[in-house]
């Protein structure tokens, strides 16, 4: 299994594509620029099987409907944000320039943590609320990667000043879920460069001094 990022939209949200040897792929957080994403997938001859959302903020969902419709694939989202996709006030687009974002309901709602299998891909889902109530993280143990959304970044953590954000929950999620992973685990964040769990444990200033 291999992966690559595609920064999309004005906030350069990282959309990740994970693909296997059969050219099947999973799409994480298609935030905008659907045509750009489709062109890259076509160039690489990849066949998407699902869209997985780390959370439902506008900059992570803007291209969901055109990608879903083009490939006829389902969308997965945590149930705590099932109403966010179509609500600009909840998904945050009402507060930013560029127009309101409204997306149709997800076909599948994630209701608990645990192992999942989709199209031959096996991974774990962690509930990591804090940046938003329904934030989740996807962990691929065999590949040693974790798709963290806006929970953990290189040298930083997710903001908690948006509706539904909670700093205490965020820090608890990071320390009890992400920092429990092997230190060599590669972190694929929602914005910015890739990092590792070990690097963030050693150098991320936001993670030191926290008490659960």
Automatic annotation (TrEMBL):
GO terms for molecular function: hydrolase activity; metal ion binding. Gene3D superfamilies: Ribonuclease Z/Hydroxyacylglutathione hydrolase-like. Pfam families: Lactamase_B. Keywords: Hydrolase, Metal-binding, Zinc. The keyword Transferase does not apply. It comes from the Bacteria. Transmembrane segments: none annotated. Its cofactor is Zn(2+). The keyword Secreted does not apply. Residues 12-191 form the Metallo-beta-lactamase domain. This is MBL fold metallo-hydrolase. It comes from Neobacillus notoginsengisoli.
């Amino acid at each position: 299994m291999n992966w690559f990022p595609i920064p999309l939209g004005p906030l350069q949200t990282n959309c990740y594509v994970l693909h296997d040897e059969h050219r099947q792929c999973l799409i994480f957080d298609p935030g905008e620029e659907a045509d750009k994403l489709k062109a890259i997938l076509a160039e690489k001859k990849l066949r998407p099987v699902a869209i997985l959302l780390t959370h439902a903020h506008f900059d992570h969902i803007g291209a969901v409907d055109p990608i879903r419709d083009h490939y006829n694939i389902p969308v997965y989202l945590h149930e705590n944000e099932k109403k966010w996709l179509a609500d600009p006030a909840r998904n945050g687009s009402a507060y930013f320039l560029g127009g309101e974002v409204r997306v149709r309901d997800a076909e599948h709602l994630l209701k608990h943590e645990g192992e999942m299998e989709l199209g031959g891909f096996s991974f774990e889902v962690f509930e990591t609320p804090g940046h938003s109530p329904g934030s989740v993280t996807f962990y691929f143990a065999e590949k040693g990667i974790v798709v963290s959304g806006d929970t953990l970044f290189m040298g930083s953590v997710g903001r908690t000043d948006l509706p539904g954000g909670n700093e205490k929950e965020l820090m608890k999620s990071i320390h009890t879920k992400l920092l429990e992973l092997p230190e060599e685990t590669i972190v694929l964040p929602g914005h910015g460069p890739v990092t590792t769990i070990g690097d963030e444990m050693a150098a991320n200033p936001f993670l030191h001094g926290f008490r659960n």
